[in-house]
Amino acid sequence: RGPVRDIVALNSAAAQLAFAGPDLAAPLAAQFVEPLQRAYAAIDSGAAARTLDAWVAATQAAKPA
Q1: What gap in Å lies between CA 31 and CA 20, rounded to an integer?
Q2: Count of CB atoms within 10 A of residue 34's CB?
Q3: Where are the domains of the chain?
């Protein structure tokens, strides 16, 4: 826990919100609650690290020899 975890979670929440499309009539801060909870859960459960590891492995396997 700390500032790095917080900024990673905020970045993830912003990406989730951008992908879903924000409700322009609703307060933006309120729309961050669920995506931020999902981001923290992914970090804390290790799912985010596993996804990163999978992306690293895929990109390393795809690089030219």
Answers
A1: 11
A2: 13
A3: 3-62
